[in-house]
């Protein structure tokens, strides 16, 4: 029943609208940081809205009966990575500050939903190793931009822990890449071998 609803075209259209609006809001949320970001870093700073943009494109392509495995790979790895990352950063903010605004809780819920979407819609994705390689380079390159060139999103007092956050984020990226390989490539190969 749930699987039928998830893959129903009307539900996917609704999800497309929700993600499109969330993407627009996400870029707006980054507005103050983007205003002071050097132009050559602009594509790499708004991580979460770019992740939901990839997913929005994936949903749009699905609705018009097309696929782009590169977009699918970018959507999966960035949704999982930045979905989990934002939940972790807001929890860390709660620990460090002792309080979290309602927007922090809203960001935790919406980013958890981002990561969940990636896993739920993985069966619709047709990714090969070359596509995952491109997506892996993208998210690892973002680590360099965020933590070497100091473009990490601003989170209250968390700048004091930038090195530690950068280290954990690197391993979160590795986890995400391995998860993507397991779910999107290894499982596909396994199901193909069973049908032969």
From TrEMBL:
InterPro entries: DUF1405
Key word Endoplasmic reticulum present: no
Top-level lineage group: Bacteria
The protein's name: Putative membrane protein YpjA
Segments passing through the bilayer: 12-30, 42-64, 76-96, 102-122, 129-145, 165-184
Keyword list, A-Z: Membrane, Transmembrane, Transmembrane helix
